[in-house]
Amino acid sequence: MTENTTDGTAEYAADTTGNTAGRVAVVTGGSRGIGRRSAERLAADGLAVVVNYAGNKVEADETVAAITAAGGRATAVRADVADEEAVAALFDAATETYGGVDVVVHAAGVMSVSPMAETDLAAFDRMVRTNIRGAYVVDQQAARRLRNGGAIINFSSSVLGLALPGYTAYAATKGAVEGMTLILARELRGRDITVNAVAPGPTATALFLDGKDEDTLAWFRGQSPLERLGTPEDVSEVVSFLAGPARWVNGQVLRVNGGVI
Fold first, then answer.
1. CATH number of the domain within which 42 lies
2. N or C terminus: which one in the chain shows less Cβ crowding within 10 Å?
3. What is the number of domains present in the chain?
């Protein structure tokens, strides 16, 4: 809902009933995998969604088409999440199209797996740029521009707790995301904005499945007491919760992993 401020402008005020009507979400990495499912779920919850993508316009347009076919509102905007000017333009587009931004889901990320001794430093630099700088740039714009009563949802990974060999560089980038998430929640005191991170476990996305044989996938399935991989839908349920009714969950990392750790 909105309230009038003393200068006559409209400002969003949190609705503790979980009503999401009139709210606007920016979802980075929203054209595929967990990002796409999160965008679709938020649109089903009643939010207008800006689907950010890095390069695959076809997949982004397909996501928008799926949302609008289901009765939701969405538009696709290209932006490199590590480019501060592009991200500022992304937020500008959301504001110009829908009037403001209330929720940011930062799902964009890249992953390269190899032991530390064999890591290609160019791949490491790419992960640092996208996963750390990208999160910082997106969160910085969110901190500056979210309307009061909003929510910032970053993505970490349960691999930090699993401590799997080969994931050193990726885990390092996600540890940085967790650190900035917890501190930003405290820096936004007084604005009724929650800042949390979702840390999925093994989830059946193209990012996770790439390069893994059936024996490896069977091992991952066996790590959960539920004896399966997670799905993007599993994770999007938590994103929906944090974007809507979870107003008393703040400064937390939610490990969405089926009991793996």
1. 3.40.50.720
2. N
3. 1
